[in-house]
Amino acid sequence: MSGRLSGKTAVITGGASGIGRATVELFLAEGANVVIGDVQDALGASVAQTSPNAVYQHADVTREADVKALIDAAVERFGRIDILFSNAGAAERDEGFASIDEASFNRVMQLHLASALYGIKHAEPHMRAQKSGAIITTSSVAAEGTTYGPILYSIAKSAVLHMTRLAAVRLAADKVRVNAIQPGLIATAIFGRALGLDQETSEAKAAVMGSIAELMQPLPVAGQGRDIAEAVLYLASDASRFVTGQSFCVDGGLTAGQVPNPEGGVFKPLADLFGVDPA
Ligand SMILES: NC(=O)c1ccc[n+]([C@@H]2O[C@H](COP(=O)([O-])OP(=O)(O)OC[C@H]3O[C@@H](n4cnc5c(N)ncnc54)[C@H](O)[C@@H]3O)[C@@H](O)[C@H]2O)c1
């Protein structure tokens, strides 16, 4: 199928890499105009160069003025904004509560929470006026389990979920929908970058993440940016016209639970403890 976003204009933050880049590519293939915002200018510009329907603009999403400017750019260049995918993000090493301070708290909350809040604030007037719009925020499985992400990151991603519901209710009367995507483990540069590697090396390392996928979640495949992009496409398109205030875990079954021990199933540890043959 194609053309599911024909005539629509999208703003995608963090579109230079990973999930954002995969979403830019899918949205363009589905007929959207796309404004890409990122801080990796050369990479972002190279993604935009693949289509006359894409433009790149430098935007540090921790700065409200930059987020507003991205939305203004969509309206000036393409006449409207129909979709906002607040996706930009990064991870940091987790060294426990003792390592958290005012600076790290503000940094992580600005990047993951305030950025999406600024997006809602500045997309809202345009979307309300046209009586349509789809905003997709980016949470994470880290908002579900306590061991899926760093502490501050997990707090921010949890707050994104509640903010998404708050916005969905406030904007619904004008048929503006707000939903969140919750990626599981997706093979992108984010992990290498968090460990201090450069973008190119991080992307190369992400390509080998499939080898550990079956240790991480029930489906023994590595999640790719495209897997998230497909879900974001649904939330962005008219196919989801009756969906708002929801969050969508796309995680290979990670949040559904652990795979039982293949020898003896869920009762194996108890059977061992009781000295009984689990079969
Ligand atoms: N990869 C995963 O496993 C995973 C899981 C759950 C949630 N997420 C979330 O998905 C989103 C995308 O992550 P990804 O895995 O594609 O990572 P990625 O590193 O491949 O891409 C993130 C992009 O965001 C950009 N960015 C970072 N800080 C920015 C800023 N201040 N302003 C503008 N752009 C900025 C980066 O330059 C990069 O292009 C993030 O919000 C991340 O927290 C990822």
TrEMBL record:
<keyword id="KW-0753">Steroid metabolism</keyword>
<dbReference type="Pfam" id="PF13561">
    <property type="entry name" value="adh_short_C2"/>
</dbReference>
<keyword id="KW-0520">NAD</keyword>
<protein>
    <submittedName>
        <fullName>Glucose 1-dehydrogenase</fullName>
        <ecNumber>1.1.1.47</ecNumber>
    </submittedName>
</protein>
<keyword id="KW-0443">Lipid metabolism</keyword>
<dbReference type="InterPro" id="IPR002347">
    <property type="entry name" value="SDR_fam"/>
</dbReference>
<dbReference type="GO" id="GO:0047936">
    <property type="term" value="F:glucose 1-dehydrogenase [NAD(P)+] activity"/>
</dbReference>
<comment type="similarity">
    <text>Belongs to the short-chain dehydrogenases/reductases (SDR) family.</text>
</comment>
<keyword id="KW-0560">Oxidoreductase</keyword>
<dbReference type="GO" id="GO:0008202">
    <property type="term" value="P:steroid metabolic process"/>
</dbReference>
<dbReference type="InterPro" id="IPR036291">
    <property type="entry name" value="NAD(P)-bd_dom_sf"/>
</dbReference>
